[in-house]
Design a protein that fits this description.
Radius of gyration: 33 Å
Structural class: mainly alpha
Number of strands: 0
Strand content: under 5%
Order of helices and strands: HHH
Number of domains: 2
Low-confidence stretches: none
Shape: flat
Distance between the termini: 61 Å
Helix content: over 70%
Largest sheet: none
C-alpha cells in the first residue's frame, strides 16, 4: 500500500513539476510575444509621427507655393497671403465645427446593448408573468 501511495505521490509530483514547467514556458512565450508587440507598436507610432512631420513640412511648402503663385496673379504678395490664409482658416473652422458635431453625438453608453438588455428584461418579465 505504501508503494501505491509513493507512486501516486510521485505521479502527483511529476504532474505538478510538468505543469509548473509548462506555465513558465507559456509565460516566457507571453513575455516574448508582448515585447514584440510593444516594439512593433512603438515603431508604428514613431513612423506615424515622422509622417506627420513630413506632412506638415509639405503643407507649409505647398501653402508658400500657392501664395507665391497667387501673388503673380493678383500682383500682391500680401493679398495672396490673406486669400490663402483666409481659405485655410475657413477650412480649419469647418473641420472644427464638423468634429465638434461628431463629438457631441458621441456617448460612452453602448446604446444598442442597453436596448437589447431592456428587451431581454421585458421578455423575461413577460415569460415569468405568464
Amino acid at each position: 500500500m505504501t508503494d501505491g501511495n509513493q507512486t501516486i505521490q510521485g505521479l502527483f509530483g511529476d504532474a505538478l513539476r510538468e505543469t509548473t514547467d509548462l506555465a513558465q514556458k507559456e509565460f516566457a512565450l507571453f513575455r516574448t510575444e508582448m515585447n514584440q508587440n510593444v516594439r512593433a507598436l512603438f515603431m508604428g507610432i514613431a513612423l506615424i509621427v515622422a509622417a506627420a512631420v513630413f506632412a506638415i513640412a509639405a503643407l507649409i511648402l505647398f501653402t508658400k507655393s500657392l501664395v507665391d503663385w497667387l501673388a503673380t496673379v493678383v500682383h500682391s504678395e500680401a493679398l495672396a497671403a490673406l486669400i490663402v490664409g483666409g481659405v485655410m482658416a475657413a477650412v480649419a473652422v469647418g473641420l472644427l465645427l464638423y468634429g465638434r458635431h461628431l463629438m457631441s453625438s458621441f456617448s460612452m453608453t453602448p446604446q444598442r446593448t442597453v436596448r437589447s438588455i431592456k428587451r431581454d428584461a421585458e421578455v423575461l418579465s413577460e415569460r415569468s408573468a405568464a
